[in-house]
Design a protein that fits this description.
It is a single chain. This protein is α+β, with helices and mostly antiparallel strands and 655 residues long. The chain folds into five domains: 3-46 and 81-148, 3-Layer(aba) Sandwich (Rossmann fold), CATH 3.40.50; 157-207 and 461-564, Topoisomerase I, domain 2, CATH 1.10.460; 213-268 and 390-451, Topoisomerase I, domain 3 (Distorted Sandwich), CATH 2.70.20.10; 275-385, Topoisomerase I, domain 4 (Orthogonal Bundle); 581-647, no CATH class. It contains 18 helices and 23 strands. It has a six-stranded mixed β-sheet. Helix 3 crosses helix 5 (150-177). The radius of gyration is 31 Å and the shape is globular. It starts with a strand and ends in an 8-residue tail after the last strand. It binds one DNA strand of 8 nucleotides through residues 8-10, 45-50, 53-55, 60-62, 67, 70, 81, 102-103, 106-108, 110-111, 156, 159-160, 162-172, 175, 181-183, 185, 187-192, 297-298, 301, 309, 473-474, 476-477, 480-481, 484.
Length: 655
DNA sequence: GCAAGGTC
């Protein structure tokens, strides 16, 4: 055997083998790792990074090491994927040359470089760079092999170092200062902390929000037996003005149409799914981002959908009709519809990258439960992107009533095309055909008082969209970051609400290490990585500069350590407080058993053994209320988007 | 037990 090609993942290895061998590559396995071979070529896929970065194990005990000491400890790289490492060693020992064919990006370059010390000395190593796994791109890349770009790999390595050093030292500092150790530790990181800060800031806006009253005047109007509504065109902030307008029109019997237009509007189907929009839509279906991603990965592994981690919203040339034929097994009716109304070119989104195609089905199968839901979403979205525009009829009218102009609008779906296969929420509103100058009958008038509403809390979907906008995380990590914030008890609920600990930790970091609470740290790191890649700055310089900033942050943090620790402790206590004990007057607090089960116990234990069970799933709160029947605290439970209150005492008849 | 980034 002569050449060994190493890809970032198995699927890429399989596809590249197929392309380079014109379909005749065969599959083998070594140490359980699949590889592909033909003629003089072997192709194997990694599983992303095979090495992991961590501090040497003598620094593993949090309580024995001052967190800031970690800044000056050299992290070590260890192999994390032994089976793959051994497979590479074995396969390379038979090869004369190696071609690194990992993804064409920073992390891909580093993933490739990580295997280089497993190769025999002096073996020739080349790099194939392609931005799409298509026959054209792949063949070109393998004809024009390049050199490995060590600067590019180093730039990714700088990110690894900086993330580990900042993350680990600050995580330990905050956790130790607040004595939140073991499973209750409080984490800090370049991506998670700015994300948490967004959530906390939003919550503060909500808390500080002062609603402002305003008034609307609405008229009920009739024409040719069709009733509709017209509204005073502006929001009225002044009650006197609202009264004045209302008084003028309340007894009006007719109005005159001063303007009328009716237009047909083409309504283009939504663009193909990239990871972000996919997760956003899943969030609308009340499926969490981590769960949607997990299911998508399973569907992908079972050959039902394309690679789920992509930033691309523009299809490459795909066998669309072929895919539709496969979908017909599960969606016979919908596929017939789509075939009868196919657009000449599928819809294209604004984001275009060549890494992977947008998420689309590649085969069909009857599925159950959440897999069916996610698959259905992806399959229907795909079909919609191939379907003709819907046609909307949009109407607008202005109606003069007692010298005051009111507006009315209408919207109906005139021609339903893509919505037949991908139903979306759209509110239809009937407005009869009108003519300029004609009279309409006023049935009634209403003065409606309303008030401005606070900003909405993030959902997982809207948060992922915001993270992407701010450059926080990647398509492959954003959902995991959000999952982490839940796991660390920083956030709760479907409409994301920060816990007291989140407020306290963000405040503490803002005082001592503000940069890690802002997206700017990522933006700056990106620039520094580019400098390393371009050879304008060294890895050492960038890492050292970053460490210097972190050292300064620690000077501040250590000065305020007690204060910070107290504030967080207090917040955590508040979070775990479940009211006064109705047996002894002590505090009822949330306690975790050795097995990790939670329950409410009395702080005077063992003197007082009062305790109540808690549901193990969902969020539980105490909102200051006690049961009117037995005096035990009332517990608010939030689970699967529902919220209810119950008496902590399960034997109390009140439940 | 810490991060974020790949991937399963």
């Amino acid at each position: 055997m002569k050449r060994l090609i190493i890809c970032e993942k198995n699927i890429a290895a399989r596809r590249i083998a197929y392309i380079l061998s014109n379909g005749k590559a065969k599959q083998g396995r070594i140490y359980g790792i699949p590889y592909y071979y033909f003629d003089d070529t072997i192709i194997v896929g990694l599983k992303g990074h095979i090495k992991k970065l961590d501090f040497p194990k003598e620094y593993a005990k949090w309580s024995q090491i001052e967190p800031k000491k970690l800044i000056d400890v050299e992290p070590v790289k260890k192999i994390g994927e032994w089976r793959i490492a051994n497979a590479i060693r074995k396969l390379a020992s038979q090869a004369k040359s190696v071609i690194i064919a990992t993804d064409y990006d920073r992390e891909g370059e580093l993933i490739g470089v990580e295997i280089m010390d497993l190769l025999p000395k002096n073996i020739e190593v080349k790099r194939a760079r392609f931005s799409a796994i298509t026959p054209g791109e792949i063949k070109k890349a393998f004809e024009q092999l390049e050199e490995v770009d060590f600067n590019l790999a180093k730039s990714a390595e700088a990110r690894q170092y900086i993330d580990l050093i900042w993350g680990a030292s600050l995580t330990r500092f905050i956790s130790l200062a607040s004595e939140q150790l073991g499973k209750d530790f409080l984490s800090v990181g370049r991506v998670q902390s700015p994300t948490l800060a967004l959530i906390v800031e939003r919550e503060k806006e909500i808390q500080d929000f002062v609603p402002k009253p305003f008034w609307k005047i609405k008229l009920r109007i009739e024409k040719n037996g069709i009733e509709f509504e017209a509204e005073y065109p502006e929001v009225i902030w002044d009650e006197e003005k609202a009264k004045e307008i209302y008084e003028k029109v309340r007894r009006a019997k007719e109005g005159i149409v001063t303007h009328y237009e009716c237009k047909l509007k083409q309504d283009v189907p939504p663009p193909p799914f990239d990871t972000t929009t996919f997760l956003k839509e899943a969030s609308h279906l009340r499926i969490s981002a981590p769960q949607a991603m997990k299911v998508a990965e399973e569907l992908y592994m079972n050959g039902l959908i394309s690679y789920p981690r992509t930033d691309n919203t523009v299809y490459p040339p795909l066998p669309f009709k072929n895919i539709l034929q496969k979908l017909a097994k599960v969606y016979p009716k919908e596929v017939r519809e789509v075939l009868s109304m196919m657009r000449s070119k599928p819809v294209a989104g604004k984001k275009f990258s060549k890494d992977h195609p947008p998420i689309h089905p590649v085969d069909a199968a009857k599925l159950d439960g959440i897999h069916a839901k996610i698959y259905d979403l992806i399959a229907r979205r795909f079909m919609a992107t191939l379907s003709k525009n819907d046609v909307l009829e949009v109407k607008k009218a202005k109606i003069n009533v007692e010298g005051i102009e009111f507006v009315a609008d209408g919207l109906i779906i005139k021609e339903k095309n893509w919505r037949k296969v991908y139903p979306t929420k759209i509110k239809e509103k009937v407005l009869p055909d009108l003519k300029k100058g004609e009279k309409v009958k006023i049935i009634g008038a209403r003065k409606i008082k309303d008030k401005t509403k606070p900003p909405k809390r993030y959902t997982q979907g809207s948060l992922i969209v915001e993270m992407e906008k701010l450059g926080l995380g990647t398509k492959a990590t954003r959902h995991e970051i959000i999952g982490k914030l839940y796991e660390r008890n920083y956030i709760k609920g479907r409409s994301i609400t920060p816990t007291p600990a989140a407020f306290a930790v963000v405040d503490a970091l803002k005082e001592g290490a503000e940069i890690i609470t802002k997206p700017d740290m990522t933006a700056h790191l990106e620039q520094e990585m580019d400098k390393i890649a371009e050879g304008k700055k060294s890895f050492e310089e960038v890492v050292e500069e970053s460490k210097e900033i972190l050292r300064k942050a620690f000077e501040l943090l250590e000065k305020k350590e007690d204060e910070i620790g107290e504030a967080i402790k207090e917040a955590v206590e508040k979070q775990n407080y479940f009211g006064k004990c109705n047996k002894c007057g002590g505090d009822l607090i949330l306690i975790k058993s050795g097995k990790g089960k939670r329950f409410i116990g009395c702080s005077n234990f063992p003197k007082c053994s009062n305790s109540y069970p808690l549901p193990q799933k969902g969020s539980v709160y105490f909102e200051g209320e006690y049961c009117s029947k037995c005096g035990a605290p009332m517990i608010t439970v939030i689970y699967k988007g529902k919220k209810w209150k119950k008496c902590a005492d399960t034997n109390c008849g009140k439940n």
